[in-house]
């Protein structure tokens, strides 16, 4: 993007300030090469708020006036996902559910994004138990409040569900008509299986997730620096029951460096007591 074409001036010092703020608020480590991306996302907020400079906007964020800190984080978080993304994980999940039999299973999807991942988990559970009321508790969280609203609605453009098998589309989605033409909605029976909540992985309210059986945290840690990744994985280990399962993204191999996780194959790990031999 040409600097001369920009409506507002975003200086290097302001960009460094933004990098520190998003790291403090959400743990995200923004690359130094992302200044143009940051400009394109935040300039919309300046226009909407009728501000004339990034200094004025950042002062608003730091003061958290009008809950602008939440909007700031929403603007800078990335939400790239798909139904059954990294499909082998859902095949493993199906096998894992067999281990629990009829026992109730607590599953935490820790980065819900726009909802495709938690709904894929829910579909896997319905298929495994052959029931719309499987013995699972699925909680899906995200720091981005805007995407969580989309999650709860469960409405997607048709091209977002086209890679889902025809049988699953018929079973789990309703095709839109009239004003909803071109979109599909997750069936209410499936939406009822997922509870969506706002949660910051750098926050303190972890007691909610003590004793979970399964955690999905995929393609999130790549945005954090190594100390933050390590601290987060240690927190996941404390939250999981002994023998619980952790699913991570395809490039997130740093789990193997944290005591207490044992690899179960590609990007799938089990929790064990620290100091116990694998």
Number of helix segments? 11
Question: Helical amount among residues, as a percent range?
Answer: 40-55%
- The arrangement of helices and strands along the chain is HHHHHEHEHEHHEEHEEHEEE
* Sheet having the most strands: 7 strands, mixed
Question: Could you tell me the number of beta strands?
Answer: 10
Report the structural category: alpha/beta
Distance between the termini: 51 Å
Mean pLDDT: 90
Rg on CA atoms, Å: 20 Å
- Unreliable sequence segments: none
* Order of adjacent strands in the largest pleated sheet: 6-2-1-7-8-10-9
Overall body shape: globular
The share of residues in extended strands comes to 15-25%
List its traits.
alpha/beta, seven-stranded mixed beta sheet, three-stranded antiparallel beta sheet, 18% strand
Short description:
With 278 residues, the protein is an alpha/beta fold. It has eleven helices and ten strands. The protein has helices spanning 12-26, 35-49, 54-63, 68-76, 88-100, 116-129, 145-153, 158-161, 166-172, 188-191, 226-239; strands at 105-109, 136-142, 155-157, 173-175, 183-186, 194-198, 212-217, 240-248, 261-263, 268-271.
Walk me through this protein's architecture.
The chain is an alpha/beta fold. Strand 4 and strand 5 (183-186) form a beta hairpin. It is globular and about 60 Å long. The protein has helices spanning 12-26, 35-49, 54-63, 68-76, 88-100, 116-129, 145-153, 158-161, 166-172, 188-191, 226-239; strands spanning 105-109, 136-142, 155-157, 173-175, 183-186, 194-198, 212-217, 240-248, 261-263, 268-271. The model has no long low-confidence stretch (mean pLDDT 90).
């Amino acid at each position: 993007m040409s600097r001369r074409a920009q409506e507002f001036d975003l200086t290097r010092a302001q960009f460094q300030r933004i990098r520190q703020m998003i790291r403090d608020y959400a743990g995200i480590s923004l690359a130094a090469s992302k200044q143009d991306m940051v400009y394109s996302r935040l300039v919309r907020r300046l226009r909407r708020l009728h501000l004339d400079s990034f200094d004025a906007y950042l002062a608003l964020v730091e003061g958290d006036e009008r809950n602008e800190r939440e909007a700031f984080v929403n603007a800078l978080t990335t939400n790239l996902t798909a139904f059954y993304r990294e499909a082998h994980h859902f095949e493993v999940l199906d096998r894992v559910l067999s281990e629990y039999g009829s026992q109730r299973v607590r599953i935490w999807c820790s980065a819900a994004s726009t909802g495709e991942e938690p709904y894929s988990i829910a579909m896997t559970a319905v298929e495994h138990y052959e029931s719309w009321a499987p013995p699972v508790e699925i909680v899906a969280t995200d720091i981005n409040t805007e995407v969580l609203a989309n999650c709860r609605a469960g409405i997607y453009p048709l091209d977002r569900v086209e890679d889902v098998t025809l049988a699953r589309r018929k079973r789990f989605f309703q095709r839109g008509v009239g004003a909803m033409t071109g979109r599909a909605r997750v069936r209410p029976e499936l939406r009822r299986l997922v509870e969506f909540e706002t949660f910051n992985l750098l926050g303190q309210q972890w007691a909610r997730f003590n004793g979970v059986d399964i955690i999905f945290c995929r393609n999130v840690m790549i945005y954090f620096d190594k100390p933050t990744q390590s601290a987060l994985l240690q927190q996941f280990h404390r939250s999981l029951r002994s023998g619980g399962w952790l699913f991570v993204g395809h490039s997130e191999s740093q789990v193997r460096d944290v005591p207490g996780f044992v690899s179960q194959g590609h990007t799938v790990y089990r929790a064990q007591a620290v100091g116990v031999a694998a």
